[in-house]
Amino acid sequence: MRQVDENIQDVKETLPKLINRHIMILDTIDKLKTLYSVPTGVDFGSNAVCMSLFCFLSLQEYVTFMTIILYAFAVFFLYCYLCQCLINASGDFERAVYSCGWENLEWRDKKTIYVMLLQAQKPIELLAANIIPINIATFASTIQAIYKFVTVVKF
Prior knowledge:
One of its GO terms (biological process) is signal transduction. InterPro entries: 7tm6_olfct_rcpt. GO terms for molecular function: odorant binding; olfactory receptor activity. It is a multi-pass membrane protein. The protein has helices at 2-54, 59-64, 66-98, 107-120, 136-154, and strands at residues 127-128, 132-133. It has one domain (36-154). The protein has 155 residues and is mostly helical. The chain has a two-stranded antiparallel ribbon. It contains five helices and two strands. It starts with a helix and ends with a helix. Helices cover 81% and strands 3% of the residues.
């Protein structure tokens, strides 16, 4: 019983800090969406075009421009990977809030947890040019589309 009381006290102390941190993260994400949506979309498009055009070069030219294609691929992948990490962290946050032991808390704290769960269930998603979601699925489908395009046009 003593351990349960200590856990409840830990949750009560940690909950306000967690709420403030989550609010700051959501605010930062909204600012990122506002500032970088269009530039990210332009960068996504230019990297995809560069990657697909490099497939039409001869082997000698390909070696010459290898650093550019590696840069385009790395930037494209890192955008997608880091945004996927953000999406995964959002899901982890939701699970952490739900499994904090809210059923043992007072009614007022249960309402706070309920509001946090409602907020945490909203999907966090960054969009390139306010159209394309940035995640690993986008990376995979784009690379697949480039491969299909090059295969059809080149061969």
